[in-house]
Design brief:
Helix content: 25-40%
Strand content: 25-35%
Structural class: alpha+beta
Shape: globular
Radius of gyration: 26 Å
Oligomer: single chain
Number of strands: 35
Length: 687
């Protein structure tokens, strides 16, 4: 009765197994195998079998998250894709939107579309915005398109017709004809991925889904075959970007829902930790080997990004997609992020990463450039002998030699340069954390701060102090927390549809009826008409009359016009700092969140102990805190030897197999009865 999860990151592949009967936990970590990620998964499974006694024959549940989809998109390694669209609309994909983030850049160019113009084909047909047929589908237009796709060796076709979100009749007919004529080609109709308005966003969604669909299908087939050979014949699930899981078959139909698969596992885990602590406001941060990811859990639920854009930056508009994605801000500040001097001689950290090959200089695998991990080791936070549970010995001298390449030009000592690298990564993470809190209308002082990842706990307490959070929380097994979070996720699906209506008492009644239809789709998705224990959350996108965009507000079937309108006004005020109580209100989009209730990982109680904290102390280590404090001798504690209810004042270091936590002076660490570490800042509590 073992539930197993694996998370493929940019540097490491993590594994967590949980025995539901005994409460035993199996963990493992292996380097990610970039060319064939399934090999890294199997290496992690083999490591858990050898080290922890994992029995693959007893695995009854397998969840998997990773970077296959996002890598294929960012590295432009998807399949050769074509687009079939309404006559006159082939250039929507390239024109995009008139707004641009870098307003004064006169050299600005729109992002290169994933389908070149010569592979975007037009078909005569037309629907109006209500879905009424104006021009019937001209089937003869498909013949030259089919011939051209054969000649161009097209591997996937996206079909997108104007207003098909209101009536998919033409798309269904066209997709069926193309699939029959080109059986070896993947055909993706836009209505099967998105039923929302906005043609540019829907075009991107359909094209990118088709672009990666054969890739993810091949990857899952190869992974399934490898797992079966290892004796894992249980159901297989994929971690979705919405914070839930789906079967491999469901994921293959909509692979774009896996675009933030790995990071979403960490958010699901943070929500589970928040629930265990009775905290509904949770700020999560996961610092891995390549990136740092942060998100906000509000009112006990992960926040969804309704305007998600791939490759979006301050100066690049990115590629918008209409799939539900947990609101995650991701920056290139991980343990492997490379420190360098730019052309002006200023110190920069990331976004380039040393990855798993060759990795940071301290790994001893050939890396020569200084990284954040090298800096943390040089400051004395990491122990070179016990890193990763002793499975990997770090070379402190090679780390110092790498840091010297930036320290010498800056005229700094090795330790001051190392601290400068940490300072810059710290500033980058603070900015990212404010993006998901302050800039979304939320106060970080109202949240607990759940920090995970191999490098996260080493930086957590200083970040938490600067944000003045309620408490800093280090969950169990933080270095493999995204995989742990996958065992805390439940099967989930999101159903969205565009519907325009002025807000009246009558439209509220019709709104409830439309949600009934979405509920029926959810039941069919999960149980094919059978009884299923599903919980639903209803959200509606609403705007003031005359606005282009709206905000999502919760809908309750008991709502009257006044109660629902007040909820919308409050949501709008939180997002934009004002409300217009006398303005007309319009509904634009319905969103049903459907979650299939099922077992999730529990947090077993720690065994009570009468031993004092001195039993857990394994020694002392000097840590560099800067010129004002210099090197400070800090006690080192083994986390597995800490008992429930124990409390220790900082500064100190807490070590475990997957991470190292640094507690600052003026902070207090308490151990809960389930082994969660809660760190509170005496300075903040005294305010």
């Amino acid at each position: 009765m073992i539930r197993l999860a694996t998370d493929v990151g940019g540097t490491f592949t993590d594994l967590v197994g949980y025995d539901e009967r005994s409460g035993e936990l199996f963990t493992a970590k292996s380097l990610t195998t970039v060319k064939n990620q399934s090999r890294g998964v199997l290496n992690a499974i083999a490591s858990a079998e050898e080290k922890g006694g994992l029995r693959t024959r007893d695995v009854t549940f397998f969840a998997h998250g990773g970077t296959t989809v996002i890598n294929a998109i960012t590295e432009r390694k998807g399949v050769r894709t074509a687009l079939v669209t309404t006559a006159g609309f082939r250039d929507v994909l390239e024109i995009g939107r008139g707004n641009r983030p870098d307003l004064y850049n006169l050299q600005f160019h729109s992002p290169e579309p994933f389908v070149p113009r010569e592979l975007r084909f037009e078909v005569r047909e037309r629907l109006d915005a209500s879905g009424k047929v104006i021009v019937p589908l001209e089937l003869d237009d498909l013949r030259p398109i089919i011939a051209r796709c054969k000649a161009e060796k097209i591997e996937a076709i996206a079909v997108l017709f104007l207003h098909s979100y209101a009536n998919p009749e033409h798309e269904i007919l066209c997709a069926g004809i193309l699939a029959d004529a080109l059986p070896e080609v993947t055909v993706c109709a836009s209505h099967s991925v998105s039923r929302q308005w906005r043609e540019y966003e829907r075009s991107n969604t359909a094209v990118l889904n088709a672009y990666v669909q054969p890739i993810i299908q091949y990857y899952f087939e190869r992974l399934e075959e490898a797992l079966m050979k290892r004796g894992l014949t249980c159901p297989y699930y994929a971690m979705q970007s919405n914070g839930g899981i789906s079967t491999f078959d469901q994921a293959v139909k909509s692979p774009l829902t896996l675009v933030e698969s790995g990071p979403a596992g960490g958010v699901a885990g943070a929500a589970r930790i928040g629930d265990a602590l009775g905290e509904s406001e949770v700020l999560s941060l996961d610092v891995g080997g390549t990136t740092a990811k942060c998100s906000l859990i509000h009112a006990g639920r992960p926040t969804l990004n309704v305007d998600y854009k791939l490759e979006h930056t301050r100066i690049r508009p990115g590629h918008p997609v209409q799939v539900p994605v947990v609101d995650i801000v991701e920056i290139g500040s991980g343990g492997g992020s490379i420190a360098r001097l730019d052309e002006r001689g200023a110190l920069r950290v990331g976004p380039e990463s040393a990855g798993s090959t060759p990795g940071p200089a301290c790994y001893g695998h050939g890396g020569k450039k200084p990284t954040l991990s090298d800096a943390i080791l040089t400051l004395g936070i990491f122990d070179p002998a016990t890193f990763a549970g002793g499975s990997m010995h770090l070379d402190k001298q090679k780390a110092a030699d790498a840091i010297a390449t930036v320290a010498t030009p800056l005229g700094m000592s090795i330790e001051d340069a190392a601290l400068a690298i940490v300072d810059i990564a710290h500033a980058n993470m603070i900015n990212a954390l404010k993006l998901v809190t302050v800039q979304r209308g939320h106060d970080p002082r109202d949240a607990v701060f759940v920090v995970s990842g191999g490098a996260g706990p080493a930086l957590a307490t200083r970040l938490g102090r600067d944000l003045s959070v309620k408490a800093i929380v280090i969950p169990p097994h933080p270095g493999i927390f995204s995989a742990w979070g996958m065992l805390a996720a439940e099967p989930r699906a999101d159903f969205r549809g565009t519907w325009f209506a002025a807000l009246t008492q009558e439209t509220l009644k019709e709104l409830a009826g439309r949600f009934d239809g979405l509920e029926a789709e959810a039941v069919d998705y999960f149980a094919k008409g059978q009884d299923a224990d599903i919980r639903f959350t209803y959200q509606v996108e609403v705007r003031y009359r005359g606005q282009e965009h709206g905000v999502f507000a919760q809908f309750d079937r008991k709502d009257d016009m006044h109660s629902f309108a007040e909820r919308f006004h409050a949501a709008h005020e939180r997002a934009y700092s004002f409300r217009l109580p006398d303005a007309g209100v319009e509904i634009t989009t319905l969103h049903l969140e459907a979650v299939l209730n099922g077992p999730v990982i529990s947090l077993p109680l720690l065994a009570a102990t009468s031993n004092g904290i001195e039993v857990a102390m394994t020694g002392r280590r000097n840590v560099y805190f800067g010129a004002s404090l210099g090197w400070v001798s800090c006690p080192v504690y083994e986390r597995s030897l800490l008992g429930p209810g124990q409390s220790i004042e900082g500064p100190m270091i807490i070590e475990e197999a997957t991470a190292t936590t640094l507690v600052q002076d003026g902070q207090r660490m308490d151990v809960t009865d389930t082994g969660i570490l809660i760190i509170r800042d005496n300075r903040i509590e005294a305010r």
